[in-house]
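thread from #wetlab-drylab

HS: before we spend reagent money on co-crystallization trials with ribulose-5-phosphate, can we at least see a predicted complex? here's what I'd submit
DV: go for it
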Amino acid sequence: MNQQEMKSLAGRGAVEAMVKSGMKLGLGTGSTAIHAVRRVGELITQGVLKDIRVVATSFQTVLECERLGIPLFDLNSQEIGGELDLTIDGADEVDPERRCVKGGGAALLLEKIVAYASKTYAIVADESKLVEHLGIAFPVPVETIPEARVTVRKAVEKLDAQAVLREAVRKAGPVITEHGNFILDVRFSSPVDPAALETELNRIPGVVENGLFTRIRPAIFIARADGSLEAAY
Ligand code: 5RP
């Protein structure tokens, strides 16, 4: 299987295994999660899934849900009440303890709010996302208010890391997140303690949120190049 086929296998497989009628469902962002979104759309259209209330984690996901006629709700709405049964999302890295780095699509803020508000959390990924140590091959995204970009960069460098302001593609200047902030991509040269770092990064004034997800142990759906799908709950 090529990588696109693996992403599809993981996204669709998680929906088929975990999504049930009546659920309040968080749907994530990215090129893997979008296959889960599409499978939910298909199952709703076929009448297999009924009474699904979805919270989307980004504009990308909102637009895809709208295109597919998936019923969307605000996390704060009466129908959702700030709690979800299940969220399915992608990841940039997953370590052996199923801690993750997310935010490759700069949607980490709402992704984390939704993840931590979910009773069950599932990560969908191809096998290239499995790593021994987080934050070395793929940087940890840190969402930062624009006025603090230099002070946050300097604070991060004291943690023995390099921070690079993420540049936009087909827009001059930096990426502006869906909440009006910048992203600093932070790369560590040696293994870090992800749980401690998740807390420590958020203590730097001006940091809004970071892409380490360590406080919830997700189910994982990992697609392999041999066509198999490994599911662990
Ligand atoms: C977006 C994310 C994505 O879930 C993550 O970047 C994985 O994306 P992809 O499945 O396209 O590799 O965290 O902010």
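DV: Residues 195 and 215 are 7 Å apart (CA to CA).
HS: ok that's useful, forwarding to the group
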